[in-house]
Design goal:
This protein is mainly α. The protein folds into two domains: about 55 residues, Arc Repressor Mutant, subunit A, CATH 1.10.10.60; about 140 residues, Tetracycline Repressor, domain 2. Helices cover about 80% and strands about 0% of the residues. The protein contains eleven helices and no strands. Helix 1 crosses helix 2, helix 4 packs antiparallel against helix 5 and helix 5 runs antiparallel to helix 11. About 20% of the residues are buried. It comes from Streptomyces goshikiensis. Keywords: DNA-binding, Transcription, Transcription regulation. This is TetR/AcrR family transcriptional regulator. InterPro entries: Homeodomain-like_sf, HTH-type_TetR-like_transc_reg, HTH_TetR, Tet_transcr_reg_TetR-rel_C_sf.
Length: about 200
């Protein structure tokens, strides 16, 4: 008879996690990162402070959970795109992936800058970076067999370095559309290599 209770607790914990992450997103959108505290998130989510601290321990834990949750949403959206009728080409998939990544970084810029500041090279060892690299590598290898797909995957991921992306957006004043056009130029160059 303990199994149903355990399932209910897991479902309740999952609901609380979603409530906490949604509350953190609302607070970030309204007040920015400087005002984000676990106490404020608990109040906004309508859960006890202990619930938030048990799950995330500290603010960086909450930040990484938000990043991981946003990554999962991005991956699900990309998988839906790839499953559409007509099977998109490697070039179309690569373009959709890179454009989606630009939107993901734009939407999470403050969180990613904080993560980069706390562990500057940490992103290169993170599961999302490895996953992105493998995905891009596969699409590049399909688009242009014989190129150094691993190197090109690194190159195509460089524009998403939070500090560089933020510099382009704030200091250079570039909009996300310009960044996407630059990525399109890189994709065209890779595709042209395959056509030779």
């Amino acid at each position: 008879m303990t199994a149903p209770t355990e399932r209910a607790e897991r479902a309740d914990a999952a609901r609380n996690r979603l409530r906490i992450l949604d509350a953190a997103r609302r607070l970030l959108a309204a007040d920015g990162f400087a005002e984000l505290s676990l106490d404020a998130v608990a109040k906004e989510a309508g859960v006890g402070v202990g619930t938030v601290y048990r799950r995330f321990q500290h603010r960086p834990g909450l930040v990484y959970a938000l990043i991981e949750d946003n990554e999962a949403r991005f991956q699900a959206s990309f998988a839906r795109y790839c499953a559409t009728d007509g099977a998109p080409s490697a070039r179309d998939r690569l373009r959709a992936f890179l454009h989606g990544m630009a939107d993901l970084v734009e939407d999470n810029r403050a969180l990613l800058l904080l993560a980069e500041a706390s562990a500057p090279a940490g992103r290169y060892r993170s599961a999302p970076f490895r996953r992105h690299h493998e995905q891009i590598l596969g699409m590049v290898a399909e688009l242009a067999p014989g190129v150094d797909a691993a190197y090109l995957a690194d190159l195509l991921l460089m524009p998403y370095t939070p500090g560089l992306f933020d510099f382009q957006r704030t200091e250079r004043g570039w909009d996300v559309a310009r960044i996407k056009r630059g990525l399109d130029t890189l994709i065209a160059g890779i595709a042209a290599t395959a056509e030779r």
